[in-house]
Amino acid sequence: MAPAELDLPEQAPAWFASLERHAPLWRARVERALERWLPGEAIHPARLHRAMRYAMLGGGKRIRPLLVYATAQAVGVSAAGVDGCACAVELIHGYSLVHDDLPAMDDDDLRRGRPTCHRAFDEATAILAGDALQALAFYVLAHDPDLQAGEGVRTRMIAELALAAGSRGMAGGQAIDLAAQGRELDLAQLEDMHIHKTGALIRAAVRLAAQAASDLDPDRFSRLDRYAKCVGLAFQIRDDILDVTGDTRTLGKRAGADAARDKPTYPALLGLEGARERARELLLEALEALAPWGGEADPLRGLACHAVARNA
């Protein structure tokens, strides 16, 4: 991203540096957790398990797990204590991508620079793989022995993730998105759609980690939730911008797909500059929410800046 495209706060380089120090370790942690929880390729039914592993272990930015670990650091919870949360939110995200790519939904052929799950296997197997990944997410939250949560907290975490993934969260947002194709939405309607479709799971990632801190002040919990809401919307705005300005090779998925499907987007509604300005407003609000924290929240600040400055 060209520096002139969006005016980031002057502290952004330090926040990025903090994120870059932690991110490789956190990505490696969630990769190991996913590898551990996903059934082996040779386990019956083998084809389904191969498809699940193909969908989940093929790389990816792992933004949601990074939010889990960065929030845990900010509230004083160990990374090991939230491995289950990081794994669970990524399994839900992975299942949603497998289903979103299907011909009945977005009909995409590429994901992360390689064939989508239904192209690599077949549609029926991809549907089942997504179903199984979703179920596995809740199994992980219920059974991870290292999860830093008593029974009551664990139950609240399961309820939190279920709400974020369901009709009042991500699945509902996708339904709104499908119904909105070819229609014009105003800003409030567009943001409502993305608060559900993209924002709900991002908020859940932060909230799950915050719930692992048994003594977290309610005001700080509320601030982390506001941070996550802003980051979720900013992340989606950047996605919309990249669909216009990016290229397929860099994105790892087909560029220009939103316009081809006549989807309502921030650039279509506000123009590119208006979309960038809205992203900056959300970034500043997210950073303000973190004001009570010191350097322990710098990776969260770096993730907020990354949400609006990334190229893929």
Molecular structure report:
The protein is 69% helix and 1% strand. By secondary structure, it is mainly alpha-helical. It has one domain: Farnesyl Diphosphate Synthase, CATH 1.10.600.10. It has a two-stranded antiparallel sheet with strand order 1-2. A hairpin with a 2-residue loop joins strand 1 (110-111) and strand 2. The model has no long low-confidence stretch (mean pLDDT 92).
Q: Quick summary of this structure?
A:
The protein is mostly helical.
Q: How many domains is the backbone divided into?
A: 1
Instruction: Give me the CATH architecture, please.
Output: Orthogonal Bundle
Radius of gyration: 19 Å
User: Please, what is the CATH homologous superfamily?
Assistant: Farnesyl Diphosphate Synthase
Quote the distance from N terminus to C terminus.
Answer: 10 Å
Strand order of the largest sheet: 1-2
CATH T-level fold name: Farnesyl Diphosphate Synthase
Largest sheet: 2 strands, antiparallel
Q: What is the beta-strand fraction?
A: under 5%
Helix segment tally? 14
CATH class category name? Mainly Alpha
Averaged pLDDT: 92
Let me know the number of strands: 2
Which regions are unreliable across 5 or more consecutive residues at pLDDT < 50? none
- Helix content percent band: 55-70%
